[in-house]
Amino acid sequence: MAKVKPFRGIRPPKDMVTRVASRPYDVLNSDEARTEAEGNPHSLYHIIKPEIDFEPGTDEHDPRVYDRAVENFNAFRQNGWLVQDDADHYYIYAQTMDGRTQYGIVVAANVADYMEGRIKKHELTRRDKEEDRMKHVRINNANIEPVFFAFPDNEALQRVIDTVTAGEPEYDFVAPDGFGHHFWVVDDPEMIETITREFEAIPNLYIADGHHRSAAAALVGHEKATNNPAHRGDEEYNYFLAVAFPASHLNIIDYNRVVRDLNGLSKEEFLDRVAKSFDIEEKGAEPYRPAALHNFALYLDGKWYSLTAKEGTYDDNDPIGVLDVTISSDLILRDILGITDLRSDKRIDFVGGIRGLGELSRRVDSGEMAVALALYPVSMEQLMNIADSGNIMPPKTTWFEPKLRSGLIIHELD
Length: 414
Fold this sequence. Notes:
- The chain contains 13 helices and 21 strands.
- The protein is an alpha+beta fold and 414 residues long.
- Strands 1, 4, 5, 6, 8, 9, 10, 11 and 12 form a nine-stranded mixed beta sheet that branches.
- Helix 4 packs parallel to helix 6.
């Protein structure tokens, strides 16, 4: 059963939220963060990417950078740029993209649920990335940024969301990327009790985005419990910051591939090899978007092609083998292009669908890449089924958009 609790959130005053809020730490590099924060001392980048306060080129893992993070966090609080609520609350956080709004509940999620597998993951994590975020959580003694969860739809929780969001939001703004962000405080005791009770009836939560942040937050909480001889189990460090969305609210978009060369093959040889496993249809110069599962779009030498995997090239009964990312990784990237490790091979790069199909053709037309492959997006049902089966998706399978805005709410561990 999923155990969550309300908490005393640390957050910006209403009139400062747009200056504090930022994109997540892992969607931009140090130079981009430095540019976005230029002239804005209130930007959360000074806490989540504090290398921007040092000379360009400073290693983001330099011990001085972590020290600066906590110095800045403390200064934000002393200056009143971040203020802690005086009582435990849940919060509702909604995001709007392309006229569509998804509503999540901000909770303190349970470390034991993560450690014991009730919070399910679908991606592998890298230890170096975990350790980076663990240092950040440890030194700040807080979860500065939330993780992104999904849960099976629940009527009682949906009623709470509908009721709360009928009122005036605490924050309501459009970020520079054009996405809307809306935030409400849940302070009604009955609603707070309902949220806690209804989550207890949900068997599992699912990490949608933020696997490294989830691992880091849970591992630090577990570490604190292990090192505390008086540990009881109800301390704040037993919980970490998450925004949990009903699964039906979420929309996974495509996550596409571009490859630098054809592995020594001519265009004709490459297409002949592809035709052994796929039915190919030439589509011309206009971008072609995959129409259904097992249909792919290929861009090569100024033309788009529709590729449909032939019967017998995949197994619908295999939760991993049926994924289009697996089919394309095995039959095209591995068998034809010789790419066996998606995590480390420098010949391949990945392009989130938010950038559009035009980004794929642009990178091929520029000569930087030789071929692009667009995939039909994974569904939330597939993601949850894979997590339930204990399997792990191949790398770079899911892209969630919009990303959670950082700086709207922070969870302190004591």
